């Protein structure tokens, strides 16, 4: 099978049952994406597929050979952090850090959704979006669980990046 | 996960041909892959339909919309036409799952998702839906999330979808392609089966029959809302939900379309509820009569008894909101 991940071409020959998450971690050594629940409930495995955030644990690798996949390794590097990574550091948006790659990939995808004008469950009027209030961030990020409960700082970090780019 | 043969379909016709021979369609996979990991589902063959050209939302001649089966839940919720004309559907979709799951889950797949009954998921428990004839551990077990309407001796599972509840209220029609090119238009009201003594048979789809579209008729008149009651504010299945559109003319309810989630073995709609409202002045007398009609046959199993009064209160609150009626 062939894959396009973080702008690079990869070949691999995994078992047909292999999830995208296991492909990344076990076959390609991209261990930034984390396995939390492995059932789509925690969000630790969140990656971007063609720019959209998904749970890589609920995706079969074989079905994503023609997609552009971006993981946390593709967003920033230790020397050149993505603005979200820098903001999470600045705001202490984690404690153990296990959920953080998923939080950041999810936040990236989420902000793109807001830019497209997608409403959320807490958006008062369906035709009026764009404000990324704390309630909006909480609702839109509810697919990412942080067992250390760093939520207030995660929201701060995301809002700072959103306001800086808006 | 048990291994499986894998085929990628290039056209709906080849998908159906592959699907007829013991194949299981996979698109978003957000429910099916999970169930395969748990070996609740062990398909011999997966037919990948995710690359089929069924991702458009088109205007239909009757003033409605024709939604491709592969339109992701998030795209459907955000579509400007859906937001403007079918806000109850947007709201229901946005009430379901998480941003990640809505990005992958499809319209057709959402209709076909399986119950979240704990005993269906636990392969060591008895479950007539998972293993026909094995029994039901839900009736006497932790049945807090399970159904109070449309249950049977064999099964008390709920259908988990929010989207399908709104679609049921909107009189959606499931469009399919079957063996030999046979196309069917199945009203959602006829799409799901009651569990009876065959709870493993959930829909009227035939082997290999592929959902290609969901058709929405022209939007109903009046105001609409989707109210969802759940254990946490986001990312949880409904304990009770109500999709409602209500119109008022000359001080009386002129039309009402209501469907319910979390209560039934399928997205629930009962014409008696609407009959109790239409022609009556909005107010608690009519609203209580509607709740009486909805819950006349409701049966709790212990832990889920609370759903019956909760459904009444939620329905009345929704009706008060839509008709701007005080208690």
From TrEMBL, chain A:
Transmembrane segments: none annotated. Residues 1-75 form the 2Fe-2S ferredoxin-type domain. Pfam families: Fer2, Fer2_2. The keyword Iron applies. Keywords: 2Fe-2S, Iron, Iron-sulfur, Metal-binding, Oxidoreductase. PROSITE patterns: 2FE2S_FER_1, 2FE2S_FER_2. The keyword Mitochondrion does not apply. PANTHER family: OXIDOREDUCTASE, IRON-SULPHUR BINDING SUBUNIT-RELATED-RELATED. CDD domains: fer2. This is Xanthine dehydrogenase YagT iron-sulfur-binding subunit. InterPro entries: 2Fe-2S-bd, 2Fe-2S-bd_dom_sf, 2Fe-2S_ferredoxin-like_sf, 2Fe-2S_ferredoxin-type, 2Fe2S_fd_BS, Aldehyde_Oxdr_Iron-Sulfur, Beta-grasp_dom_sf. Gene3D superfamilies: 3.10.20.30, [2Fe-2S]-binding domain. One of its GO terms (molecular function) is oxidoreductase activity, acting on the aldehyde or oxo group of donors.
TrEMBL record, chain B:
Pfam families: CO_deh_flav_C, FAD_binding_5. The keyword Cell inner membrane does not apply. This is Xanthine dehydrogenase YagS FAD-binding subunit. Residues 1-221 form the FAD-binding PCMH-type domain. Keywords: FAD, Flavoprotein. It comes from Sphingomonas guangdongensis. The keyword Flavoprotein applies. PANTHER family: ALDEHYDE OXIDOREDUCTASE FAD-BINDING SUBUNIT PAOB (PTHR42659:SF5), XANTHINE DEHYDROGENASE SUBUNIT C-RELATED (PTHR42659). SUPFAM superfamilies: CO dehydrogenase flavoprotein C-terminal domain-like, FAD-binding/transporter-associated domain-like. GO terms for molecular function: FAD binding; oxidoreductase activity. InterPro entries: CO_DH_flav_C (IPR005107), CO_DH_flav_C_dom_sf (IPR036683), Diverse_Substr_Oxidored (IPR051312), FAD-bd_PCMH (IPR016166), FAD-bd_PCMH-like_sf (IPR036318), FAD-bd_PCMH_sub1 (IPR016167), FAD-bd_PCMH_sub2 (IPR016169), Mopterin_DH_FAD-bd (IPR002346).
